[in-house]
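During the reporting period the student researcher (J.K.) took over the structure-prediction task from the postdoctoral fellow and processed the backlog of single-chain submissions. One of the processed entries is reproduced below for the supervisory committee.
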Amino acid sequence: MYRGHTIGVIVPAYNEESHVGGVLETMPEFVDRIYAVDDRSTDDTWEIIREYAAASRRSTDEERVDSAADERPAPYASLPDGGTIEGTEIVAIRHEENQGAGGALRTGYVRARDDGMDVVVTIDADGQMDPDQLPKLLDPIVEGEADYAKGNRLADRESRREMPPFRLFGNWLLTQLTKIASGYWTLQDPQNGYTAITNEALSAVDIESLPDDHEYPNDLLVRLNVAGMRVADVSMPAKYADEESTIDYKRFIPITSVTLLHGFLRRMRVRLADDRGDPAALGYLIGVASLAGAVAFAVAAGVNAIQDETPLRELFTTGLAFAASAVVFLVAMGIDAAANAGKGVRR
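J.K. obtained the following structure tokens:
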């Protein structure tokens, strides 16, 4: 328990036999329950998770026996590698079929929510996330500042240097797109998997329909905004070693783009349903209409150019239409950012 809140941690794992044991073993003592979800690994990940879960059960049994005998601290159950499990319960869960990163998180979220954990944390099994940073992630939630907290590896120059250039550029681009789609205009690093969420927020976002693949954090952010939840960005160091990314970028980029578009449209639809005169939603609609007009002008000008009949006036009108649509979009973004200013917290 952390500052009066029960803490459940989800550790999704797929072929992480080299790292998952270290992640489970170094979890802080205040964590009440770990949900280790094996997404049908083909290596020894599941066997390692089972060993740790068995050790955690022995530790719990020893604590109960010792507490019944006297008030001395119970001994910790030892692991095959000489480590110990210090009273935290580990729940081992295995998928019958591989469901993807989002699917593994979804399984853990549903289980932790139904178990009544006050705060549910997600930590990847690849060893990139330092469990000692967990209090920083939990503090905005237990102090009532946020309903959801996420790590941010882009908060300072040193952290950005640790990130490979290709990931840094991709992360920056996704950050801009996710800001527009989700309405959390102050956030960075939306793909960061080090997160914490309240039970109330989990219950409000229909977590059972979370996407299966790596686009799940972008989709979740949109759901949180629609539900009126506050999100905290917490500075976290980047850490890369010998782990390999499981993201297939040929699939990830188009799927995430479509997910963000759907999320944006869903958020605007909800805003219009709540307030038919919502200025941001209306601004975006006008921007789309003016952009469509600009494209139509450009196509007409292109046809005339082929026929050597493009007057200067048509070119000017086309440029003006594009400029007008850009201005309308920028104004709508500004209104949207102002309307959502209270939903973002920087730590």
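The committee noted the following: Confidence is low (pLDDT under 50) at residues 62-85.
J.K. will present the remaining backlog at the next meeting.
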